[in-house]
Fold:
Amino acid sequence: MARKVRILIARLGLDAHWRGSIVVARALRDAGVEVIYVGNQRPEAIVKAAVEENVDFVGLSTLSGNHMELVPEVVRLMRGAGIADIPVLLGGTVPPDDVPKLKQLGVDGIFGPGTPLKDIVSHVSKKA
Structure:
């Protein structure tokens, strides 16, 4: 029996906006993805959980405008932990000017408000 695709979903830092991350987590779960939801976490805890849970994806959520500080830190720590090959997905409000910078850092997918859930599920399914 094949192992399910596993994704860690975390809200960056003290971001209090939880609804989007929960909706995405449920959509992925309903599509057969094993979701490890850790809620609000700092970059160090996110990377530690990704290593411990042996995930295939790291999904980050932000609506607080902290993405240009915390996402690069998550990516840097992932490199240091030897898991730079795990795709990072980012959901939330990301200004268009920040998208190329984040992609250059290695963020695999960026999904803004209103992205159809089927697009996120499809992105994860294609990469799995």
The mean pLDDT is 92. The first strand starts at residue 6 and ends at 12. The chain has five helices and five strands.
